[in-house]
């Protein structure tokens, strides 16, 4: 059975070029970048190359990229690192109600530690209101954290407008969780006025377990990991050289192919969304209208259909999608994002996320729509 993989916001397949780079680092270029000998220097050079590649896609300087164990660590570090470095300046943070759990759970930790967090609401399209942000900014606000693209519904926040507001009305640092936006939407960290940005390798056809935090030059935050002083003393631990090299290649390929990839994803997305709504009675898109959100994410519900059941039925036909976000899909609890969007209960229970990557093709639309139609009809006839 041929597989149609439509769960790229959960994770992606590594591209062949990425796998080659990873293998080379594991088997040939295996030195420790801290070693003084030739193999160490060669590994150090590979890290430098990857730093350049990862920085390129967001317009950062390579010296502003700090490699981490993934997006979760980058998000934890941004929040905890700023809170610890600036606790004398203030104890108030602002984020949104629809962030990833790696932000929200870290906010809960900070609250337990005496910080105060404001959670901005999102409208039905999954976008925050600038007026709410403006009203929430205070003298003691030390950090604002927003995601560029929501992982469940694909909504995009107006990051550049948010940055202007934050910097003109406060002394707060702006952190952007760009894990779902990286390689999908154009965003230049310097031009947009972003201070910190989290990235992850496995959402862009790179390896899992590797990510990065962009830290604007001159900005100070406390390290999470202390030890041997790797990553300019900011993130200790022997570098995941294979993962980092693979991440670099994935970023390089995403940058080189950016326009073509995003245009193709958008074309597939619009066609899928149009046909699902037109051909399955009662189907509704959750979150932003298809032309507005990220080019690769559709969230859709069908009346009288529970998402978990549909996911399994589609899998039997070789089609891989998820319910809401992958982080929730094995748990019973409802999605906090769909709740924050105030969707009716049946839409929350029935929400299916279809997410595209660089390997999807327009020809996959037809069999996907047919499979959805068959499965939904079958469930309705029971
Ligand atoms: C918006 C967002 N932030 C953070 C993460 C966590 O990244 P990682 O899987 O690299 O830890 C994810 C992963 O799904 C995500 O979608």
UniProtKB/TrEMBL annotation:
<protein>
    <submittedName>
        <fullName>Cysteine desulfurase</fullName>
        <ecNumber>2.8.1.7</ecNumber>
    </submittedName>
</protein>
<dbReference type="InterPro" id="IPR000192">
    <property type="entry name" value="Aminotrans_V_dom"/>
</dbReference>
<dbReference type="InterPro" id="IPR015424">
    <property type="entry name" value="PyrdxlP-dep_Trfase"/>
</dbReference>
<dbReference type="InterPro" id="IPR016454">
    <property type="entry name" value="Cysteine_dSase"/>
</dbReference>
<dbReference type="Pfam" id="PF00266">
    <property type="entry name" value="Aminotran_5"/>
</dbReference>
<dbReference type="InterPro" id="IPR015422">
    <property type="entry name" value="PyrdxlP-dep_Trfase_small"/>
</dbReference>
<keyword id="KW-0408">Iron</keyword>
<comment type="similarity">
    <text>Belongs to the class-V pyridoxal-phosphate-dependent aminotransferase family. NifS/IscS subfamily.</text>
</comment>
<dbReference type="GO" id="GO:0051536">
    <property type="term" value="F:iron-sulfur cluster binding"/>
</dbReference>
<keyword id="KW-0808">Transferase</keyword>
<dbReference type="GO" id="GO:0031071">
    <property type="term" value="F:cysteine desulfurase activity"/>
</dbReference>
<feature type="domain" description="Aminotransferase class V">
    <location>
        <begin position="4"/>
        <end position="366"/>
    </location>
</feature>
<keyword id="KW-0411">Iron-sulfur</keyword>
<dbReference type="GO" id="GO:0046872">
    <property type="term" value="F:metal ion binding"/>
</dbReference>
<dbReference type="InterPro" id="IPR015421">
    <property type="entry name" value="PyrdxlP-dep_Trfase_major"/>
</dbReference>
<keyword id="KW-0479">Metal-binding</keyword>
<keyword id="KW-0663">Pyridoxal phosphate</keyword>
<dbReference type="InterPro" id="IPR020578">
    <property type="entry name" value="Aminotrans_V_PyrdxlP_BS"/>
</dbReference>
């Amino acid at each position: 059975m041929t597989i149609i993989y439509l769960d790229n916001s959960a994770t992606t397949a590594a591209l062949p070029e990425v796998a080659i780079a990873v293998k080379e680092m594991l088997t040939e270029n295996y030195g420790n970048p801290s070693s003084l000998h030739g193999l160490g220097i060669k590994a150090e050079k590979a890290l430098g190359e990857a730093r350049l590649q990862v920085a390129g896609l967001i317009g950062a300087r390579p010296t502003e990229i700090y490699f981490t164990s993934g997006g979760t660590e980058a998000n934890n570090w941004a929040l905890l690192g700023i809170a610890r470095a600036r606790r004398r300046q203030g104890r108030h943070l602002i984020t949104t109600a629809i962030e990833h759990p790696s932000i929200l759970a870290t906010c809960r930790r900070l609250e337990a530690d005496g910080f105060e967090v404001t959670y901005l609401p999102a409208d039905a399209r999954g976008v925050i209101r600038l007026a709410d942000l403006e009203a929430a900014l205070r003298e003691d606000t030390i950090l604002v954290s927003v995601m560029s693209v929501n992982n469940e519904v694909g909504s995009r926040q107006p990051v550049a407008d948010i940055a202007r507001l934050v910097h003109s009305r406060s002394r707060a640092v702006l952190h952007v969780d760009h894990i779902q936006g990286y390689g999908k939407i154009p965003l230049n960290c310097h031009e947009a006025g972003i201070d910190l940005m989290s990235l992850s390798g496995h959402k862009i056809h790179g390896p899992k377990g590797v990510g990065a935090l962009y830290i604007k030059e001159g900005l100070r935050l406390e390290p999470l990991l202390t030890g041997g002083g790797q990553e300019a003393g900011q993130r200790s631990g022997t570098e995941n050289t294979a993962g980092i090299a693979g991440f670099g290649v994935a970023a390089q390929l995403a940058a080189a192919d950016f326009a073509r990839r995003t245009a193709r994803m958008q074309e597939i997305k619009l066609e899928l969304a149009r046909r699902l709504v037109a051909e399955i009675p009662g189907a509704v898109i959750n979150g932003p209208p298809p032309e507005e959100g990220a080019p690769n994410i559709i969230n859709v519900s069908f009346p009288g259909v529970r998402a978990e059941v549909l996911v399994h039925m589609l899998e039997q036909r070789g089609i891989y999608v998820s319910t809401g976000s992958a982080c929730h899909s094995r748990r019973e609890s409802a999605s906090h994002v769909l709740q924050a969007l105030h969707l009716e209960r049946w839409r929350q229970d029935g929400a299916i996320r279809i997410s595209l990557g660089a390997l999807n093709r327009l020809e996959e639309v037809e069999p996907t729509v047919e499979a959805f139609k068959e499965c939904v009809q079958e469930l309705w006839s029971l």
